[in-house]
Amino acid sequence: MEKVREIVREGKRLAKEDPRRVVHSFKVGLVLALVSSFYYYQPLYDSFGVNAMWAVMTVVVVFEFSVGATIGKGFNRVAATLFAGALGIGAHHLASMSGATGEPILLAIFVFVQAALSTFVRFVPRVKARYDYSLLIFILTFALISVSGFREEQVLMLTHKRISTVIIGGLSCVLISIFVCPVWAGQDLHSLLASNLEKLSFFLLDFGDKYCEAVGNDDTKEVDKRKKDFDNYKSVLNSKSNEESLANFAKWEPGHGQFRFRHPWKQYLALGELIRQCAYRIHALNSYLNTDDTKVPVEIKNKLREPLKRMSLESGKAMKEMSMSLKKMTKPSSCDLHVQNARSACKSLTNLLNSGILKEVEPLELISLLTAISLLIDIINLTEKILESLHELASAAKFKDKTERPLSFEKTNAKSIVCGRPIKCHDDHVVTIIEDDGNNDDTSKNDNRSNEVTNHEKREDSNTHVHVKCLCDVVECR
Amino acid sequence: MEKVREIVREGKRLAKEDPRRVVHSFKVGLVLALVSSFYYYQPLYDSFGVNAMWAVMTVVVVFEFSVGATIGKGFNRVAATLFAGALGIGAHHLASMSGATGEPILLAIFVFVQAALSTFVRFVPRVKARYDYSLLIFILTFALISVSGFREEQVLMLTHKRISTVIIGGLSCVLISIFVCPVWAGQDLHSLLASNLEKLSFFLLDFGDKYCEAVGNDDTKEVDKRKKDFDNYKSVLNSKSNEESLANFAKWEPGHGQFRFRHPWKQYLALGELIRQCAYRIHALNSYLNTDDTKVPVEIKNKLREPLKRMSLESGKAMKEMSMSLKKMTKPSSCDLHVQNARSACKSLTNLLNSGILKEVEPLELISLLTAISLLIDIINLTEKILESLHELASAAKFKDKTERPLSFEKTNAKSIVCGRPIKCHDDHVVTIIEDDGNNDDTSKNDNRSNEVTNHEKREDSNTHVHVKCLCDVVECR
């Protein structure tokens, strides 16, 4: 009894998590009951006979959760059936010319060769990714048609009936999946990336506070909350296969909502990969949050608090904006500003570090602090790359322009005053270069550095550590 | 013509990469030709008729690459067919009692309810992982039997024939896959983990040399080699889904070679996860190898070279040994010694760092060095955890004992002399505690610390940074 209640509870949870699951189940039941009517109505049964069961089979196998998956599978099935049907008839014709003793032997050889060859082709990675199901159906249909043709003499009739019923089954699935509460894989992929960005932004917006205030904080509630945060990244870390299959399905879908037929789904995969790379860094950063690092002296932490907080806060804001702009399909506008703010905070931090406040600290005590800083710098670099990738997506997918708001002087919490100055960049978005007026006298040198920072945008090799370069520049400037 | 040649080349590459693919393709062709004989031989055809095609279908759908996958799918198919067959007959009987008008309506309702319910159950993650195919076949068979029963009156006969042919098809697949050049998923999983460990060991054995000598080395050949190393981890990083499906298949397999029927496959997943965690760290470390870190002064690097090299070398040796012991299925014996050597090297390093050699270095210039050290310490901790997990696997899977070789004084390249002293630990493996006689006078204090180190083995929370604790101990001892 307890077990039954548990099962019901699990079912309710699944339905609540995504109500489209319930709708999908009803749709499958509906189509199946509909297609079964082939058997009920005498006229239909008379023309298709026992072959009507192929329609039932097609429905059960082809009807998938999303429109794209259903169309893809339906297309694979119909195309493979047609092709294998034609080949099967040819094989049958060829075999029948070789006489009564030769026929079964020749047919067996055909089946063997075709099955072995197709099975081997299924190992080719590119084929496996998109046409695995096609090949399965190809082997199946060829074997059935060429071999059963050996008995029933009306091979052509049989093939015709089988293909018609498969098409009928496939079409009903596709039509119902498109017109009754459709589930679009493309829309799902789009939302998935936006929500992944949002998850990262939540962490970054909170990180600064937590890191600086978490000294020796053993509150269990706090720890629980952090654990929950932690679990959020896990979903981003493992989202690769999900993204890939959604992108694969989305390619089959017709235009829907804001998405055209040839929406640049491939670009979503590139963006998703960068988001995941950033999530790896955040994963590592989170482990330093949970570390028992009372060893970093509080006064040092206090001195570094301001720029540290600003670094994570600004990159978090940029992520949040990007998530919003992706959701609304508008071009990201003020993200560049946030990224540059984060960069200037990073500069203040390095200036602080260079001012010698760490002189009296043991190097060992610095390990966790410096590693956290190094990770944060990495995250800012990746944020910039994500932004770049989003810009590419925005221009490829023709995102709407937001109503331009004037670039204003942005005042942050930091002491240094930053001013925005727009310059034209390689594609049609505006990059704002920040000049940190607070700390520098030599404007020309400073300008050079700013250009360096802009150049980072064009870098593509994700393995080199850009931040080291960036830090070195700062060191040289001093 | 060029295209054809390219395809042939790709085919050759695939066949060379794993010749079992060719064998598998032949096997599928063979079974399919064999099962087609149902149609050729008059007596068999007379008893099964057109239902013989279910055998062909079963073969095409069920025959997978590994024995475990084939058995699993065959079992799923047969069980679902049996169960759905019984239910279908019941539904047909119930509907036929309700008269000529009620029958089709009742049947449609049955099909609808069953299809909707089963489709919903397929969303349950645990069911989806293992029984997704069962449910698909269940929906299919139930619909076909209950509905086609409406026409042909001999439902029982139909069901009987269908189930027999499915069993015949499934059995031929299983028998051929077991007795003709079998591909065991369990063996594959076992080899995969051993080779993953080996890949990590290759990196670690080389890392010390490369890191310390790579100052300003821009040799393109060298860079290419490193890139290749880098690609090796990629395969470890993304091996999760592969491991999971192999473990899933392996559960279905009968005992084979050195593996019993209930081999602890679950433990392999735990071990694989730890190896992957270690690969993440190595991935990060590799990026520091490629960094343009000429900023770390050469004299500092020279001073730290010895312990740094020894840390990576010893953990690499431990990995190599573990890989060998997994391959040969013997209990790991001298790995503990290597891990403890790595720990003692780590101690020497921290002593060096504490001696103040970094006082005159700018903190910014230390970032990459300290992060690399922090990652190496992490890797050593993970090596220890992997070893622990391997010990668990060894006792669960009853690995053979290696012929005990006497614990000898091991001379490493370092100046400190270490001696091994075996103590009994929680389970039946021997842990060797190393005493670093070179640097310490206070033996009792040293003993305490050694115990601390052993205690790390029992830690399970992988998120806390054990190395911080370890480092702090060293600092306190001074």
Automatic annotation (TrEMBL), chains A, B:
The chain crosses the membrane at residues 21-40, 52-71, 105-124, 131-151, 163-185. InterPro entries: ALMT. It is found in: Membrane. It is a multi-pass membrane protein. Signal peptide: none annotated. Pfam families: ALMT. Keywords: Ion channel, Ion transport, Membrane, Transmembrane, Transmembrane helix, Transport. Residues 436-460 are annotated as: Disordered. It comes from the Eukaryota. Residues 442-460 have a biased composition (Basic and acidic residues). The keyword Nuclease does not apply. Belongs to the aromatic acid exporter (TC 2.A.85) family. This is Aluminum-activated malate transporter 7-like.
